Amino acid sequence: MSVYNTTVPCFAQMLNSLKGLLAKGQAHAAALAFDPQNLLDSRLAPDMHTLATQVRYACTQAREAVDRLSGHALSTLETPTSMSDAVALIDQTLASLAAADRALIERRAQESIVIELPNGIAFEMTGDEYAPNWVTPQFYFHLMTAYNILRHNGVPLGKADYVPHMFAYLLKG
């Protein structure tokens, strides 16, 4: 499977899922008459990031995948400060994914990618290695953590909310 196919369409699909999860969170807050900002400020543990930051990180991983695999400078994203900002960030990320140059990404799959972390650790791998070993696990970690924060706060979510795109493959009867 190609580097493009394992990243861009999958990330777009799951970012649309994340938008649905946030919409359910907002509806849950409205039904119980509390500020949805409480959800964005929630975290699973004191040393973990908030829902707002998890949304930013999921979007960052998707955008950085396109940037790194295309050989472009990395995008810098801001943490959303409201549910509408979170949805706007996802929409901006989806637009970036839609604009990705598939041919360029495939041509660069064997080129070196260096990931430098703030703590001084660095990794070097090809695009073919980066897609399954770095960006995909990072993206899904933040996406799943966002889901878990919402569930932990009582938002009525299930697996069907996480993978709603699967209904396109549902056998009838």
Question: Main attributes?
Answer:
mainly alpha; 173 residues; globular; Four Helix Bundle (Hemerythrin (Met), subunit A)
Would you give an account of this structure?
The protein is mostly helical. It has a two-stranded antiparallel sheet. Helix 1 (3-31) packs antiparallel against helix 4 (83-98), helix 3 packs parallel to helix 4 and helix 3 (51-70) packs antiparallel against helix 6 (127-152). It is built from 7 helices and 2 strands, in the order αααααββαα. The chain has a single domain (3-161), classed as Four Helix Bundle (Hemerythrin (Met), subunit A) (Up-down Bundle), CATH 1.20.120. The two termini are 32 Å apart. 61% of the residues lie in helices and 6% in strands. A hairpin with a 5-residue loop joins strand 1 and strand 2 (122-126).
Secondary-structure arrangement, i.e. CATH architecture: Up-down Bundle
The assembly state of the depicted protein chains is: single chain
Give the class from helix and strand content and strand pairing: mainly alpha
- Quick one: CATH class? Mainly Alpha
- Give Rg in angstroms: 17 Å
N-to-C SSE series? HHHHHEEHH
Number of structurally distinct domains = 1
Give me the side-by-side strand order of the main sheet: 1-2
Fourth-level CATH superfamily: dinb family like domain
Number of E-state strands: 2
Q: End-to-end span in angstroms?
A: 32 Å
